[in-house]
Amino acid sequence: MSAPSLDFDPSTVSLPRGHFIGGTYRSTNEAQIAVHRPSDGQLLGHIPDASAATVDEAVSNALQAWKTSGWATQPPRERAKVLNRWADLIDHHAVSLAQLETVSSTRPVAEAHSSDVPFTAEAIRFFAELADKLGGDFAATRRDSVGFIASEPYGVIGAIAPWNFPLSMCSWKCGPALAAGNAVVLKPSEMTPFSTLRLAELAIEAGMPPGIFNVVNGRGATAGAAITRHPDISKISFTGSTRTGAAIMSDAALHGTKPVTLELGGKSPQLVFEHLTDLEYTARCIVRGFTSNGGQACVAGTRLIVHKRVVEPLLESVQSQLAKIVPQPLWQSTSSYSPIISRGQAERIDSLIAESLASGAELIAGGSYFENMEGGYFLRPTLLVNVSASTPAVREELFGPVLTVQTFEDEDEGIALAGHPTYGLCAGVHTRDIGQALRAMRRLAAGTVWINRYGRSGDMIIPTGGFKQSGIGKDLGRQALEASMRYKSVLIDFDRM
Ligand code: NAD
């Protein structure tokens, strides 16, 4: 029996509204922000722009729930039961969540259903399983004393998320924070607020105490800044651009010297050496690496650094694969290519391409939009050659399906070109020479190195996070749970009792 089609009519999807505070939807009279459907630019609905008073109400609810609900003090395995039920509910509502994600973000429905929704549930399950595994340490001290390091939750964690994978980003932020016993106030991106609200509703259905997970909507400069600055928020976990990350870090320093986890931007290389096991496969990695989600992934592999001897056949294969890409509305199950999130973002990409061409780059594919896509900005996959480190498209994170191509003749030159002065999020290395792969891995300043693949797997045990201006700290992995706790050092002189 074939799987049922995931095609749906976007006008039938109902949208949650308002904020989610204290276990219930909360509407306010605040200024409204229009939210558009990226696939065709249609107006989807509005969300309120939370004032500092609304953020304060959410934080008060969170703090009160954290102090009184028993969430923080119960055995971690009891929290894990709630988190596991939450993950089960997410799986149970996979179709409706995928539809909600598709109408309000750049995610094609089949991918939302086969990866975003199950990976969201998996991330929550991973942290539920880890909840009672990391408790602290016993210290080597004098023999007449006992020293230990006890972990405890911070209290209320403020989380601020980007628009590119709304469901997953919510689970990466909330999974570790909640498993560690914190309460959370999360602000999704003002461009993609809806699926996060629905997740908060499901958390209540799973038995999470009201107030432990709150969602406030609004813009960064208002709602986001109010979260960062709130005196009762003890830690900030942020994913977004490097520029915003720096503003948040400075705000968090000025308002309580709060610790921050920052998952920021990237400009990641795909380094292709001369000797490959399978050139077609490598070309597929390159294509997927820079076109997935329309290139709007922090990890997008947007700089191809390729050995001179393989550049021609590799580009030929890349171009023949790109020629097969046909965009469709995201609510058709066969759709797999994403539009640029907004007109403003499309204009930014256009101007960076224009500046790159003005500086001597040559366009060998793309550079224009697919026609007849009814208001959606589906940029053709774009290839730029004759570029250097100073070309805008090499230097800047474009957040679109644009690949620059640079060539090299020996290993040292290739590794040097793969480095970037600003970013160090991830890197792909393609070679059949294990020594070469490991030398490159050691020398590349990147938080993740993929060898003979490009992109994350569903293994939540593998943390993600950048070096340099790509971030501080990690999401996922046990590192994310550890970063959601603070550590208390205890020393007992037991002979004095
Ligand atoms: P962005 O920085 O514009 O916004 C991210 C979030 O921050 C939004 O919710 C926004 O409202 C909020 N915000 C903006 N200004 C703020 C302020 N002054 N104070 C508090 N909050 C503020 O990023 P974006 O355009 O939504 O997302 C794309 C960026 O996210 C890219 O740079 C991408 O590389 C990065 N990203 C990184 C990772 C990672 O794991 N490293 C993952 C996904 C996305």
Automatic annotation (TrEMBL):
Q: Where in the numbering of this chain does the PI-PLC Y-box domain appear?
A: 305-384
Q: Does the keyword Endoplasmic reticulum apply?
A: no
Superkingdom of source? Bacteria
The UniProt record lists the EC number as 1.2.1.5
| Pfam families per record | Aldedh
Q: Name one GO biological process term.
A: lipid metabolic process
Alphabetically ordered keywords of this record: Oxidoreductase
Task: List the molecular function annotations (GO) for this entry.
Answer: aldehyde dehydrogenase [NAD(P)+] activity; phosphatidylinositol-4,5-bisphosphate phospholipase C activity
Q: Which residues form the active site?
A: 263
Tell me its family. Belongs to the aldehyde dehydrogenase family.
The record ties this protein, via PANTHER family, to: ALDEHYDE DEHYDROGENASE-RELATED
What name appears for this protein in its UniProt entry? NADP/NAD-dependent aldehyde dehydrogenase PuuC
